[in-house]
Design brief:
Strand content: 5-15%
CATH class of the largest domain: Alpha Beta
Structural class: alpha/beta
Helix content: 40-55%
Number of helices: 21
CATH superfamily of the largest domain: Periplasmic binding protein-like II
CATH architecture of the largest domain: 3-Layer(aba) Sandwich
Largest sheet: 10 strands, mixed
Length: about 475
């Protein structure tokens, strides 16, 4: 293994639970040099305060100034201008340049982070997905920020949902990167062409409307699902359906809820039927993840889709979509939301300067501006601090146009449940292996017609013990 890359075999070994010792060995010395974080205080479940409040920014004084700060982050969200802007602001304010280790997508980011951690290379800030938190905490990939100056003030201003996102095992592990709705969208023009006057209030009603639209020749496949393979892709769509019906995939003791009467099994049968029995969903959806799926839907040949609100610019931005302005988000049942966070790596330069940099990336600058959050709000339609981003009139107008309307987004978000509540396993160390090697393949085989829904559900249910006890 060289200093910059990790072999595929080594990477797969690291991604497994058995890799904990390897990762910890690679960063033990750097972690040992950091002071232990005190226990986290309880986080009150109150609404975020007004968008004018700004917590203080800690200014490091004791540690020597580093030669650079290192950020590992992908480019898939199209927010490169926001990243470059905040890097420049940080350098202008501190005199410290930022080295951005760019990766094209989520999997490459994981590989880069793990390879740099094993090698003991400086890595100050990176994205940590909610489903990676338990594993990365156990393996020493990231370090807590509990007790650092200003952390409590940030917590006081977060939405309760964001506090849940950044907290794990009594510690705080970063600042919010984004909060994003798992929602639905429809094509206004095709909706009117089909003669519909009211949106579906259940997925059964949506199926009946699609059957009619297909029979009437409005479109061959009224639905485009997001069902591509990936750690937050086909599985998250399933959780979206389960949450909408008021169900859960696991109980609080991590027992899987997939018996014959479960909401999870019923939604899987319904989902399969949309593709295999009723043929109202485009089978190409099995090859499409979030952005390709919304782009395919925006071509104008589908009536409905499931998506995240932050991808709606691919449908309503005239520079990206041939059907811009024709798409609105809408709600069926209880919507869910997902989110990720910006975290401090275990091989960060030091806690003072790296915390300063983390605040610029995940919080605010020394003059109180949420530059990165607002930049992502413009380019990626998502923010870790939506209450502050929406205070900008231009962002508010943009979101209103892209979500069509902002009022609907806010209404849905006000009652949405965290996806980690629908699938409790997200907070375990074995989740990433389980969802990638067991859940994803079983769902794909089911939706493609290779197996039926009962077989897929039984396979997924049996697989839990294998990964839980590995």
């Amino acid at each position: 293994m060289n200093d910059r890359f990790i072999t595929r075999r080594a990477f797969l070994r690291v991604m497994g639970v058995t890799s904990g010792a390897l990762v910890l060995a690679g960063c033990a010395q750097r972690v040992a040099e950091q002071p232990a974080a005190p226990a986290a205080t309880a986080i009150p479940a109150t609404a975020a305060p007004a968008a004018t409040a700004v917590p203080p920014t800690a200014v490091p004084t004791a540690a020597p100034k580093p030669k650079e700060m290192v950020l590992v982050y992908w480019t898939v969200d199209g927010d490169e201008p926001a990243v470059l802007e905040i890097n420049n602001v940080f350098q202008n304010d501190t005199g410290i340049p930022v080295r951005w280790e760019r990766t094209p997508n989520i999997e490459e980011t994981f590989q880069k982070v793990l390879s740099m951690t094993i090698a003991g290379e400086q890595l100050d800030v990176t994205v940590m997905n909610n489903f990676n938190m338990a594993k990365w905490v156990k393996e020493g990939v990231v370090q807590p920020i509990t007790g650092l100056p200003g952390v409590e003030e940030y917590l006081d201003q977060m939405y309760p949902a964001a506090r849940d996102l950044v907290s794990y095992q009594g510690q705080v592990w970063g600042l919010p990167y984004f909060l994003s709705l798992n929602t639905n969208a429809y094509n206004i023009q095709l909706f009117e062409k089909a003669g519909f006057t009211a949106l579906p209030k259940s997925y059964d009603e949506l199926a009946e409307m699609c059957k009619k639209a297909k029979a009437d020749g409005v479109c061959e496949y009224p639905i485009m699902w997001q069902a591509g393979v990936g750690p937050e892709h086909i599985s998250d769509t399933w959780y979206h359906f389960i949450a909408a019906e008021g169900g859960k995939l696991f109980d609080d003791d991590l027992n899987i809820l997939l018996d014959g009467n479960s909401v999870a099994r019923k939604t899987l049968k319904w989902w399969r039927d949309t593709i295999q029995e009723w043929k109202i969903a485009d089978p190409s959806c099995l090859e499409l993840r979030w952005i390709p799926a919304i782009k395919a839907y925006a071509a104008g040949n589908h009536l409905f889709t499931n998506t995240r609100e932050r991808y709606m610019n691919n449908a309503n931005d005239p520079e990206k979509s041939p059907t811009a302005g024709l798409h609105k988000i809408f709600q069926i049942g209880t919507q869910s939301f997902s989110g990720n966070l910006w975290s401090m790596a275990s091989t960060a330069h030091d806690r003072d300067w790296s915390w300063q940099f983390l605040q610029y990336i995940g919080g605010h600058t020394k003059d109180g501006r949420y530059v990165m959050a607002n930049g992502r709000a413009r380019y990626a339609l998502a923010s870790g601090w939506p209450q502050y981003s929406k205070a900008d009139p231009q962002i508010k107008a943009l979101w209103d146009k892209m979500f069509n309307t902002l009022e609907e987004y806010e209404r849905q978000f006000s009652t949405a449940v965290y996806i980690g509540e629908t699938c409790k396993a997200i907070s375990t160390t074995w989740y990433t292996d389980w969802v990638s090697k067991a859940v994803g393949p079983a769902l794909q085989e089911c939706l493609s017609g290779k197996t039926d829904a009962d077989t897929a559900a039984d396979t997924i249910a049996r697989s839990v013990d294998t990964y839980k006890n590995a």
